[in-house]
Amino acid sequence: FEDAGDFARLGEALEAAQRKWAGGTYLLWYPVKERAGPDALARRLRRSGIAKILRVELSLGGTRADNRLGACGLIVVNPPWTLADELAILLPELAAILSAGSGGAHRVDWVASEK
């Protein structure tokens, strides 16, 4: 994820894979170094017509001046039916523990729901 086109290629690859096997479950991990790339990926996937796309992000909070990764995300296509609810319970605790109380955060939302 060093090239400006990495998020676009990730979206293209997911769309191609999903066309070949629409019933598959796909997991796409990505770093969150800034919001533009992940948000553009979510918009692209929302327009793609793929159903059941869950977005999950975890941030350790604070600014990472030392250039270390402070947040990451996961796109899940066709997730297990309980995953969103389970992550909504687990991620707040995980964010608090991993950030050592320095403002960790999380996000669990649907980029696209069932058709």
Give the helix/strand layout:
Elements: H1 6-20, E1 26-31, H2 36-47, E2 53-59, E3 71-77, H3 83-98, E4 105-112
Antiparallel strand pairs: 1-3, 2-3, 2-4
SSE string, helices as H and strands as E? HEHEEHE
Distance between the amino and carboxyl termini: 31 Å
Task: Name the average pLDDT.
Answer: 91
The largest sheet, given as strand count, sense and whether it forms a barrel, is: 4 strands, antiparallel
Q: What is the helix fraction of residues, given as a range?
A: 25-40%
Residue stretches low in confidence (pLDDT < 50, at least 5 long) are none
What is the helix tally? 3
Structural class: alpha+beta
Dominant shape: globular
How many beta-strand elements? 4
- Radius of gyration, whole Å: 15 Å
Strand content: 15-25%
Strand order of the largest sheet: 1-3-2-4
Structure characterization notes:
By secondary structure, the chain is α+β, with helices and mostly antiparallel strands. It has three helices and four strands, in the order αβαββαβ. α1 packs parallel to α2.
Features:
alpha+beta, 4 strands, globular
